[in-house]
Amino acid sequence: MKEHKHAYALTLPGWLIRTGINLAAEEEWKFEAGYSDIVNGIKRLRVLHIDEHVTIENNKLQSIVSQIKEKDGYVDYAVVKEKDNLVNVIVKEKGTRIKSLVVIANTPDGFSILNLKTDIEMEELKNANLSFNKSKKSKL
Length: 140
What we know:
single chain, TATA-Binding Protein
């Protein structure tokens, strides 16, 4: 996918992400439940975005997600559907720790994959104040 003419790919090291988040974050946000545990657990971020010139049908996207889960040992964490937007969050665990968190978003604005290499306790992620943890539309 990263070879597509409308694709943008980027890899950032964890230290750069942590520095940027800590500089940009509002003070009150830094004290939200689970914020520091999640930010400190980020080791690397890889992003792939293909702009609105590409559309992927949701059933094809689900097939892609299923292939990733089967091939690489990921499990579902959350699925959020709203109108034309579909977001899948899948995780790869080792014991009680999340070693990788992947967000796959298919929207009218384009298709994006965010792959976070992490070292976060599952309990820390569950305690975090993330919107898909609270959404009535999500499946956890």
